[in-house]
Design brief:
It contains 9 helices and 7 strands; from the N terminus they run ααααβαβαβαβαβαββ. It has 209 residues and is an alpha/beta fold. The chain has a single domain, classed as 3-Layer(aba) Sandwich (Rossmann fold). Helix 4 packs parallel to helix 5 and helix 7 runs parallel beside helix 8.
């Protein structure tokens, strides 16, 4: 047993709602790319530990991570999530309804960079961000959410190891190239204090100064 499965076996138990999401995705022929159970639990704990009340998620898919994020909020907290595809948002709302969280989540459909730019113009502010969308645009999303962050806000980015592809210097595909760029931003950005955790497929965490 490797360390990932060891952690997952110990800490990745899913309830019925979360456990039903992957079979539903498979049934619909959609990609099985929700966060793994141990990352979901960690997201719930991190939201609770930080006391976040205004979450912005980029990349909803079927709502697995959305449910985990909202479970960490207090009763007055709210989550806004952006998803490119209508079919994914519809499915996410189905799962959010089962979890009893429809009134705690605003679901938006469309290009995330366009919606983030709109939020910047409106001077919206959030105190917790979770990025788990198309990797090619990660650097753009990170720069945008920094502008939306309250002082002390937490930014979490999933898949920063990209299945190990970021370690292969000869892999020049746009996805690993973008992930390397966003990791460099985490290391060197003047407004961020960051770390990369070997949890799941690599989770980046930053505090905004």
């Amino acid at each position: 047993m490797d360390k990932t499965n060891y952690i997952r076996d110990l800490f990745g138990e899913e309830d019925k709602i979360l456990a039903s999401i992957s079979p539903r995705l498979e049934e619909l022929g959609l990609p099985l790319i929700s966060v793994p159970p141990e990352v979901g639990k960690w997201l719930t704990m991190l939201v609770r530990m930080t006391g976040a009340t205004k979450i912005l998620e980029v990349g909803t898919l079927a709502g697995y991570s959305t449910i985990c994020l909202v479970r960490g909020l207090n009763q007055t907290g709210h989550c806004t999530t952006i998803e490119l595809k209508e079919e994914h948002t519809k499915l996410a709302r189905e799962h959010l309804a089962k979890a009893g969280f429809l009134d705690r989540v605003t679901t938006l459909v469309g290009d995330a960079s366009v919606q983030l730019a709109k939020f910047i113009q409106e001077d919206k502010k959030f105190d917790f961000f979770f990025l788990d969308a198309d990797k090619v645009n990660y650097p753009t999303y990170l720069e945008q959410v920094i502008q939306l962050a309250l002082p002390g806000a937490v930014i979490v980015l999933d898949n920063l190891l990209l299945g190990g592809r970021v370690l292969d210097v000869n892999d020049s595909h746009p996805a690993p190239t973008a992930v390397r760029k966003v990791t460099d931003l985490l290391v060197n950005h003047s407004r961020l204090e960051s770390i990369l955790l070997p949890l799941g497929d690599g989770v980046g965490v930053a505090i905004v100064r």
